Amino acid sequence: MKKWEGSDTLHFNVTLKNVSDQPQRYRVNIFLDNGKAVGGLIPRKTKKGLVEPGQTASFVYPVSGMDCGPKSIVLMVKTMSQ
To answer: Which residues pair with 37 in a beta bridge?
Structure first.
C-alpha cells in the first residue's frame, strides 16, 4: 500500500529479467479477482532503448479504488514483436 492520488492504494511492483539473447519490450497485464485490471509496457517508452539481454526492468502499477489485497490475481507477460 502506498499513497496515490490522496489515498492508500494497492500497488504492484513488477520486475522482469530479459533471459533472451535479444533486446525486448514487454506487455504486462494484471487481472484481479474483483474484475479490476491494470497493466502497461516495460519499458514504458523506448527512447532509452529496450530491456537488454540479462538486464532487468521494473514498473509500479497502482490499482485505483483498492485499499486491500485481492484474493487472487492473474499475471500475464508477453513480449512485443520487434
So the answer is: 31
Q: Give yes or no for residue 18 having a pLDDT over 90.
A: yes
Q: For the chain, what is the domain count? A: 1
| Cβ-contact 39, 61 below 8 angstroms | yes
Sequence-distant (6+) residues with CB within 8 A of 45 are none
Which residues face 28 on adjacent strands? 40, 77
Cβ–Cβ under 8 Å, residues 71 and 38: no
Query: Would you say the pTM of this structure is higher than 0.90?
Result: no
Domain extent at residue 24: 2-79
Task: Return the residue matching grid coordinates 489485497.
Answer: 69
